[in-house]
Amino acid sequence: MNRRIGLCGSHRTGKTTLAVAVAKKFGIPFVKTDTSRVFAENGLHPSDPMDFKTRIRIQHLVVNAASEVWSSVSGAFITDRTPIDMMAYTLADIQGQTDVDFKELEGYIDHCFDETDKFFSHLAIIQPAIPLVYEEGKAALNLAYMEHLNILIIGLCQDKRLSADSAVLSREIINLKLRIAALVSDF
């Protein structure tokens, strides 16, 4: 397996568990990014309410930090975060009352697509499906928000600016071994 695979999806969908299992099975590096660290270094938490300018500033920093990590790996790898996810979270935070600088938003979206195309040959969309269990320090169990993110991610993966192949993992597949097999068969 000589591919650069990014798992896309909402929080709490099992992306990390799946990425680690695929990495182990195929002997490729699992590349971990650290979004929480970037937020913490800037005195923020990902779930904090933010105005648009603050959100765009921190999201650019998140993408840049992840790009540094992905740049450090030569050859195949798998990761549990992509700029597609980062775009989806940014877009999901925009509400009807949000004062948006659309030119700045477009620049951020273009940046995310450029970085996705630069680092990934394949994207796998991991939909909400696994049973959710509350865990301290993990993201909220808000199914409506998770679905919102899922739909945004599916749509972003259909955008013409994206050159990576993408596939959607069926919701019915929740067993880890079956998830690995489905992921590998898609690529």
Describe the structure in your own words.
The protein is an alpha/beta fold. It has a single domain (4-186), classed as P-loop containing nucleotide triphosphate hydrolases (Rossmann fold), CATH 3.40.50. The chain has helices at residues 15-26, 35-41, 52-71, 83-92, 102-119, 143-156, 176-186; strands spanning 4-8, 30-31, 77-79, 122-126, 165-169. A five-stranded parallel β-sheet has the order 2-3-1-4-5, with helices on both faces. Helix 4 runs antiparallel to helix 5 (102-119). The protein is globular. The mean pLDDT is 91.
The gist of it:
The chain is α/β, with parallel strands linked by helices. The chain contains seven helices and five strands. α6 (143-156) links the parallel β4 (122-126) and β5.
Distance between the termini: 9 Å
Count of DSSP strands:
5
Strand order of the largest sheet: 2-3-1-4-5
- The residue fraction in helices comes out at 40-55%
Task: Provide the CATH architecture.
Answer: 3-Layer(aba) Sandwich
Identify the overall geometry. globular
CATH topology: Rossmann fold
How is the biggest beta sheet arranged?
5 strands, parallel
The CATH class is identified as Alpha Beta
Low-pLDDT windows of residues: none
The topology string of helices and strands comes to: EHEHHEHHEHEH
Q: Domain count, please report it.
A: 1
